Amino acid sequence: MNFFGRELPVFKAALHTHSTCSDGRFRPEEVIAFYENAGFDVLAFTDHGKVTPVAAFRSRMTLIQGIEMHPAGLPESCWHIVALHVPGDFVYDNTLSAQQMVDRIRGLGGVCIAAHPYWCGFSAGFVGGVSGFAALEVYNSSTRYIGKAYNMQLWDELLDSGTMLPAVAVDDFHSMDDFNHGWTMVAAPECTPEAITTAIREGRFYATQGPRIESLEFSGGVFRAKFSPCTEAVLMTGKWRGIKGQVASEAAEKGCCTSFEADVSALPRGSYLRLQLMDGDHNYAWSAPVAW
After folding, report:
1. Which residue intervals of the chain bear CATH 2.60.40?
2. Mean pLDDT across the stretch 60-72?
3. Whole-prediction pTM
4. Is the C-alpha dihedral spanning 188, 190, 193, 194 positive or negative?
5. What percent of the chain shows pLDDT beyond 90?
6. What is the mean pLDDT of residues 221-245?
7. What does the pLDDT read at residue 75?
8. What fold does the segment set 2-208 form as a domain?
């Protein structure tokens, strides 16, 4: 993939999963088998309040140790913070605040993701009040049963406020109802825990439910992209602005589109840009944002 000027392989990653080590229905070995058979390259175990030691399991995939953390201090809701690349001897302390937890994980070389903020009942301002997140979840499969799977508006509000946070798509796997509905394609030179973590920290990934992004370029005020056939392609930006490549209602006449190009030089400096795609099955993909 051409990721804004760097040619890199991409790896299909499941970054939020649970097993019987917390509230998942399947043993870690079974979770590994499900994701291996679905063609994933990376699987992170993020059980609630504990680190599942991945060295105990064999897999062709890269396994990443993680944990889902729940900071104290919210009377009417609860933070859900996914931490990745966590050491096996990590001691979970749920008395820490969200900021303290994020700072601690970053100090240990890991990364943190703000999980399903819509489901948590959070505003963009509340999420943006904690610094150091590597990403937020733009799509979470397990929260779709109550209509709160998508977090695009909150994401755009964060971007519009100047918080340039990329986004991941996840299953938040607990049962087979959650399985293989959203994943993250990570652009990294190799598929090791360290390289995947670095790529996430640096924002080199895109989120998807199916559409593939093959190339992203932005130079000289021109944004270009190539991708698998989609009925809709829109370049999202701040407030009332945006640039239409094609919307779904035009696909019957024009057919699917596979590329996008737009001159954004008329947009105000400081604007964010992110590509949003939808295919014929109404599956989305979301690029990482860039600043103009």
Report:
1. 213-291
2. 96
3. 0.97
4. negative
5. 96
6. 96
7. 64
8. TIM Barrel (3.20.20)
Say if strands 6-7 and 111-114 run parallel, antiparallel, or are unpaired. Answer: unpaired
Q: Where in the chain is the domain with CATH 3.20.20.140?
A: 2-208
Instruction: Retrieve residue 246's tokens.
Output: 């094609």
129 contacts: CB under 8 Å, gap ≥ 6: none
Which run of H or of E encompasses 17?
none
Sequence-distant contacts of 156-160: CB under 8 A, at least 24 apart: 156/236, 156/238, 157/123, 157/124, 157/125, 158/124, 158/127, 158/128, 159/238, 159/272, 159/274, 159/289, 160/238, 160/239, 160/272
| Distance separating alpha carbons of residues 9 and 221, to the nearest angstrom | 26
pLDDT of residue 21: 96
Please give the Cα distance from 73 to 94 (Å, whole number): 10
How confident is the model over 156-169, as a mean pLDDT? Answer: 97
What is the residue-averaged pLDDT of the chain?
96
Q: pLDDT digit string (tens) for 70-93?
A: 997 776 679 999 999 999 999 999
Regarding the domain delimited by 213-291, which CATH topology (the fold level of the hierarchy) does it fall under? Answer: Immunoglobulin-like (2.60.40)
Beta strand extents in the chain (DSSP E only): 2-3, 6-7, 10-14, 42-45, 62-69, 81-84, 111-114, 135-140, 167-170, 183-187, 205-208, 213-219, 222-230, 232-236, 242-246, 257-263, 272-278, 284-286, 290-291
